[in-house]
Amino acid sequence: MTKSFSKVYEALNWASSFLKESGREGEAATVLLCYRLGFTRSELYLNMRESFPQEKVELFVTDVERHVSGTPVQYITGFEEFYGRKFQVNNDVLIPRPETEELIEGVIKRLPSNKDHLRIVDVGTGSGIIAVTMTLEVEEAEVSAVDLSPKALRVAKDNAQKLGANVDFYEGSFLEPLIKVGKHVDVVISNPPYIPRAEVETLSDIVKDQEPRLALEGGEDGLSCYRDIVSQLPQVVASSAFVAFEIGSGQGKDLRSIISSAFPNAKIEIEFDINGKERMVFALLNN
Fold this sequence. Notes:
By secondary structure, this protein is of the alpha/beta class.
């Protein structure tokens, strides 16, 4: 597609219209334009009537066309903001969602205030957003992170290094790497794949065709990963421990049952996200 713009606002108007006509969110035009011009949103609005750099016209048009074709904006820009920090992402990892910020906030406010040097593990770390954020937000925490995908771990390690977070990374299935080395923890956090297999195909093409299936599909009923993690918990948690899961809407009752079967004395809370959907399960365990 050959296009020409003389002003910044002309590029934004064209991209917004083209995206909407193609069934995409017009807001993506602002994100892509800021990325390509190196502006913040405020800078973009202040420079709307400035000349558009002609050497960047083709690059910007290509960015917009890629998004129309199904590539997520975050895979085009190579990053996503999470908890006030910029995380590198690519198609080896799930794109961070705002709901996971709520999970972290819920964990932090429930952490015991009388225990120093908490040992925390992020199970299924993906891009490392949970592990890195907990390391930087919780003073003196010892944080580990596990993922089955070596490609995802490379992204997570890069993020940890760039953001100055000291995280111990393990490759393997759920808590198995910690079990193998005899490591025990006080806090387990996980945002595992929780979409039922049949429902994956109903997702937007930007999600189902671009983000890793390994990070989306949670088995036949969406609960397979929770069952595996909970079954391994007794081998890694201390005498008492705190567990936090992100869940899909409507999965709270089932996960409560899974946890209660393994830990009959657990104190379990089901929390809703800002949109009023079940999104988090917190459990205080007595092993």
